[in-house]
Write a structure and sequence with these properties.
- By secondary structure, this protein is of the alpha/beta class.
- Helices cover 65% and strands 7% of the residues.
- The protein is built from eleven helices and four strands, in the order ααααααβαβαβαβαα.
- A four-stranded parallel beta sheet has the order 2-1-3-4, with helices on both faces.
- β3, α9 and β4 form a beta-alpha-beta unit.
- α2 crosses α5.
- Bound molecules: iron/sulfur cluster.
- Iron/sulfur cluster binds next to α7.
Length: 315
């Protein structure tokens, strides 16, 4: 158990990742809100010649934009500090907007502060990983898992074509594809090797996963997460001992650890379901009794009996 936690924590957000992102969020918020302030007060001298209605409309737009940014930045700060999604209306939408449109702004702001783009992308992926696992623990348990691998993991001189059909691999063990196939079989996941973003998108469309565990470099993981939002992507960084895109490696223990964690979340959730189901059955029966409608709906009764039988079998 300790090993799983260790392997996962290597891919999860560290305090420095969170600090870096909080700094970026605060600085960007300060910049944007200052620009909004100036965009009203500076031209308001010229606007004074215009009718009141125009001035109020202009002020309204500025205030609405300011409120929008305050909500987005407040949401981001809460999510980063808590390490999980906060339950407010439109939380999913806000997260999608933040990932798609605000990350590029953070990268620009990071450049102003002298923070390398790759460092920001790394922090973003690790924070995202924490949110993905936390969502799984809080009820979004994935059933279909896709292991999405980059083509550069394959041994450069291997003659087998594993793109699209990873099962073609002869399992010689010269590259990580062999072990990844074994992991996919062990955990009931789908393994796919993609040569680029277009094929990766097509694979995602075809397999319709609930969770993607993707291996790639910082840049590709970031763009993959942005492309597939709101679909959850857990990112694992590849290793590049021979330089980028050539005979790359992956920490197989990290992949194993995440799959193990998801399996344990799944089994806990199934255990909980089997405990709750008879209680729901009893409460439904009591409701019917109280309403004077004992077993009035044969379909409902049949479903409840089935549920109860399944739960006793599971026990
Ligand atoms: S493990 Fe599979 S993909 Fe890798 S070199 Fe051997 S046959 Fe090729």
């Amino acid at each position: 158990m300790e090993e799983i936690k260790k392997a996962i924590s290597q891919n999860n957000a560290t305090t420095s990742d969170k600090r870096l992102f909080l700094l970026l969020v605060f600085f960007t918020a300060f910049l944007i809100l200052s620009i909004l302030g100036f965009s009203y007060f500076v031209p308001s001298v010229g606007l004074s010649a215009l009718p009141d209605l125009v001035r109020w409309a202009f002020l309204g737009i500025i205030v609405a934009a300011g409120c929008f940014f305050v909500v987005i930045f407040g949401f981001l700060i809460a999510v980063i500090v808590l390490g999980r999604d906060v339950s407010i209306p439109y939380a999913k939408k806000l997260r999608s907007i933040a990932i798609k449109y605000f990350l590029p702004i953070f990268i620009v702001v990071g450049r102003l502060l002298g923070i390398p783009k790759e460092r920001i992308q790394h922090a973003f992926v690790t924070i995202n990983n924490e949110l993905v696992l936390s969502a799984c623990r809080n009820g979004r348990v994935p059933e279909r898992i896709l292991l999405l691998m980059p083509h550069c993991l394959q041994y450069s001189e291997c003659s087998v074509k594993v793109t699209y059909r990873a099962e073609n691999c002869k399992r010689c063990g010269k590259c990580p594809i062999k072990r990844l196939l074994e992991l996919a079989e062990e955990y009931g996941a789908t393994l796919s090797v993609a040569t680029g973003g277009t094929i990766a998108r097509r694979v995602v469309k075809e397999t319709k996963p609930d969770l993607i565990i993707a291996v790639a470099c910082e840049r590709d993981l970031t763009s993959g997460i942005q492309d597939t939002v709101p679909l959850p992507v857990y990112g694992i960084f590849n290793r590049r001992p021979h330089g980028p895109c050539f005979n790359t490696q992956v920490d197989l223990e990290a992949v194993d650890a995440v799959l193990k964690e998801i399996r344990s979340i799944k089994s806990k959730s199934h255990q909980l379901e089997s405990k709750i189901s008879p209680l729901i059955y009893q409460s439904k029966k009591l409701d019917n009794f109280a309403e004077g409608l004992p077993s009035s709906n044969p379909l409902l009764t049949e479903n409840m009996d089935k549920e109860n039988q399944e739960s006793s079998e599971a026990k």
